[in-house]
Amino acid sequence: NPEYGNIHVKKDIVDQLSGAVQVATLEGEPGENSAQGSLVAIQIKKAATMRATLAKLAGLGVTKFHEREFQGETLYEIEVPHLGAEEGGEETRVGVAVAEGHLLVATDVRLLERVLRGVGDAEALVDSAAYKRIARRFPSKTAYISFSRQDTQMKSLFSMLKTAPAGLLTGLDQFDFSKLPSADVLKKYLPPTGSYMEHDPKGLKITSFSLRNESE
Predict the structure, then answer these.
(1) pLDDT digit string (tens) for 112-161?
(2) pLDDT on residue 84
(3) Beta-carbon neighbour count of residue 141 at 10 Å?
(4) Could you give the CA distance from residue 112 to residue 103 in angstroms, rounded to a whole number?
(5) pLDDT of residue 102
(6) Is pLDDT of 76 > 80?
(7) CA separation for the pair 123, 193 (Å, rounded)
(8) What pLDDT is recorded for position 85?
(9) Counting beta carbons within 10 angstroms of the beta carbon of residue 126, is it exposed (0 to 12), middle (13 to 18) or buried (19 or more)?
(10) Has residue 83 got a pLDDT over 70?
(11) What is the rounded CA–CA span in Å between residue 130 and residue 28?
(12) More confidently predicted of 125 and 181
């Protein structure tokens, strides 16, 4: 149908998906002006086909796509109204691109830019000692695996509680969250965690676990 950019949902979208999906979340301090949010990487079969489909979607005019080149790839920015946009808040800029055999969608375009730049001199997650300790416990065949850093999650939660406007947390007004200790104090009690899903005779089984710190 020309009205919908001649996009064939099955051939141009569904048939291009391999079935493998990765999700990464980067925590940040509330109000921090740096890349944070979630990124979904969907493995695809033919990058050229998915790029063409994205170009068609951008041309439909259903929503505003800002197209630009970044690190040799075509990157699309989509403006999504923020909850506080009517009060002068900034709009959220979702990022979409096709790279490294994946369709990449990030809730913050800066996070997508960070991925497209590559790790550089930084340590990749797969090479980190914390991830390797957890990954050794994953079975060889799984439906999904997950790795989380509880310490960074707790740090973000503490920062949010300490800076939340009065009255925002209904029912918790009697608590003075400004007196919470630094999240670093609890770091040693919050080791990385892992989880995985595997097939079971009765369906699917999910296992979650954490490991004692090596120093203990």
Answers:
(1) 998 998 866 677 888 889 999 999 999 999 999 999 988 777 777 777 67
(2) 45
(3) 8
(4) 11
(5) 96
(6) yes
(7) 19
(8) 44
(9) exposed
(10) no
(11) 20
(12) 125
Domain ranges of the chain: 2-117, 125-210
Residue with more model confidence, 216 or 25: 25
Rounded to whole angstroms, the maximal C-alpha distance in the chain is: 64
Distances (CA, A) of 33 to 114, 153, 215: 14, 18, 35
What phi and psi values does residue 166 have, to the nearest 5 degrees?
-60, 135
> What's the per-residue H, E or C state across the chain?
CHHHCCCCHHHHHHHHEEEEEEEEEECCCCCCCCCCEEEEEEEECCHHHHHHHHHHHHHCCCCCEEEEEECCEEEEEEEECCCCHHHCCCCEEEEEEEECCEEEEECCHHHHHHHHHCCCCCCCHHHCHHHHHHHCCCCCCCCEEEEECHHHHHHHHHHHHHHCCCCCCCCCCCCCHHHCCCHHHHHHHCCCEEEEEEEECCEEEEEEEECCCCCC
What is the CB neighbour count within 10 angstroms for residue 23? 12
Please name every residue paired with 39 in a beta bridge, in sequence order, or none if there are none.
24, 106
Burial class of residue 140 (count of CB atoms within 10 Å of its CB; 0-12, 13-18, 19+): exposed
**Within a 10 A sphere around the Cβ of 30, how many other Cβ atoms?**
13
What percent of the chain shows pLDDT beyond 90?
A: 45
The torsion region of residue 50 among left (phi > 0), alpha (psi -120 to 50) and beta comes to alpha
